[in-house]
Amino acid sequence: MQSSLERIATGPSLATVASGNPYLPTFWIALLILPTLIVGNGIQNMWQSLFQQIKGLGFSKRQFGIVNVILLIFINLGYLIAIQLLLALVDLFTLGVHRMLNGETLHNHVYLSVNLFLALLLLSLVQQIFSWLHRGFLLIMPLVLLVYTAFTAHVQNPLNLTMWSRISEVHSLQSFICAGFVALMIVGYIYFYGNYEVK
Fold first, then answer.
1. Taking the model in full, what pTM does it have?
2. C-beta of residue 145 within 8 angstroms of C-beta of residue 28
3. Helix, strand or coil, per DSSP, at residue 13
4. pLDDT digits over 120-163, tens only?
5. Are 32 and 120 in contact (CB under 8 A)?
6. ∠ at Cα 67 (65, 71), nearest 5°?
């Protein structure tokens, strides 16, 4: 029996999309888009109000970028832990302790959670980077990526790893590729924030 997380984080399989029958998985989109709604332009607003005061203490813009990434990591991690605790309580009552803690269910849960964290961080970084171009992109770009993922069967798309119905159809190496891509985006974000962000 599937855990609550596996049931929520699901959508059309790659085979379903390839056959021309995709659909929009609303629970999956809500699960992944909520942290971007939480963050919004809060980081920009925070630094606009504190920038001159903190810069007077000798902090560089690159250090601000590092703090931004740390904030994004903690926000997404906190969000994921809160969701996990809520769904674990649901599973405790529906599956029971024995089924919930069996090897396969626990392994699936952890694997999906790691992929979800990477994807949440990726979407948050995309949101922050595109918001430099225009504030209207704060929510649009992550949403476009999620809708694109739901309606296409592109195997290399790292967001496939967050959809339980697609995990078995994607090579497990994709998790490491996604982690590498997130690391590159973090380095790029800090570099560009430090050199080109206009306050």
1. 0.86
2. no
3. coil
4. 999 999 998 888 777 777 788 899 999 999 999 888 888 988 99
5. yes
6. 115
